[in-house]
Amino acid sequence: MRSCEIYLDNAATSFPKPEAVYDAVDDYQRHCGAAYSRGIRSEDHADTIVDECRQMLADLIGAPDASCVAMTFSATDGLNLLLRGLLRPGARVVTTTLEHNSVLRPLRQLQQLSDVHVTHVPFDPVTGMVSPDDFRAALRTGHVDLAAVSLVSNVTGIPQPIEELATAAHEAGAVVMADAAQAVGHCPVDVQRAGIDLLAASGHKGLLGPLGTGFLWAAPELHDRLIPVRCGGTGTHSESLDPPGQMPQLFESGNLNMPGIAGLKAALKWHVSEESRNLREAFRWRVRRLLDGLSRISGVTVLCSASAARSTGVISVTVRGYDSREAAEILYQSFGIRCRAGLHCAALAHDTLRTRECGGTLRLSPGLMTTDEDIDRALDAVNAVAAAGS
């Protein structure tokens, strides 16, 4: 990326990363190079890197047992492993219209191949939130095996009332799966307090780790119900042709992305540092400033502005007179603003928001490294584009 550009696409992947992340990836590549669970253990061996990263992830989400955390290649990878590992032919699922395609598309395929029944509960286009009453009503239509909920929408940035939704799901006898891709690193996540049974998240968004990293968590009581859909070598129980039945090896067939995990471990360590805490405080203020500034620009509509007091850093707008993709291209070509436009892999959300006809939304997502000057330049640029289109 050119130095004069401003990166406001952190909801897709964070950039830049802390220097410690780059250093950890480079150090692993130059001085370790070993695979996880496939060699003699040493103090700086791959096993140590993975075990420490796994424990830090468990601590991050309030999980009491780190062995219930499996490393994945992305949130999408983790969600697929959980959905395909849990759902049997004829299963019933209640989810929402806020979901990302990493949930919607596996469910659609399972509908077609395994007669899985899926109900999508709409959200309020003003607040951006799913009503627990609407969710409960959908759960009452018959036996439900799984409730799948995104903790934070990648379109609106609005956190969902997960504790209330999980309570309703458990009352109906359903397992609760959370897509935490946009939540971890931005919002407190506690799987026990929230009533979450299964969770998947990425390492490269709010956690500031490298691309190609993610993790999933499964409550111990569900391990016997989960079937591994990706089988192969794990470095353990090699004498058996059956895949390991215990976590985390249940979901870790094949070589792990060790350079990425080394970087993720460094990112998690940085996440609890004083530097990170100071940046997060400034980040929340800058998100608020960006929201306030966008809401004052004529011709710009901030989606779900009734719930603007949020700190996830995901802001979607429409600009009068422009298809969202056209507006994004102008912002980049004329002002050096890198943002994202379109449906954001969440088409059903745009049906509820009624933004499909204008090409979806223009999404601006600052990160911890975004500066005050970046916010000012972005607001000036959006104001200039909106003025030209009115």
Helix and strand layout, with pairings?
Blueprint: E1 6-7, H1 19-31, H2 46-60, E2 69-72, H3 75-86, E3 92-96, H4 101-114, E4 117-121, H5 132-139, E5 146-150, H6 162-171, E6 175-179, H7 191-194, E7 198-202, E8 214-218, H8 258-271, H9 274-295, E9 300-302, E10 315-319, H10 324-335, E11 337-338, E12 340-342, H11 347-353, E13 361-364, H12 372-389
Parallel strand pairs: 1-11, 3-4, 3-5, 5-6, 6-7
Antiparallel strand pairs: 2-8, 7-8, 9-10, 10-13, 12-13
Helix pairs in contact: 1-8, 2-8, 3-4, 5-6, 9-12, 10-12
Name of the CATH class of the largest domain? Alpha Beta
Question: Termini separation (Å)?
Answer: 31 Å
Biggest sheet strand line-up: 2-8-7-6-5-3-4
Which CATH architecture of the largest domain would you pick? 3-Layer(aba) Sandwich
Count of beta strands: 13
Structural class: alpha/beta
**CATH superfamily of the largest domain, called what?**
Type I PLP-dependent aspartate aminotransferase-like (Major domain)
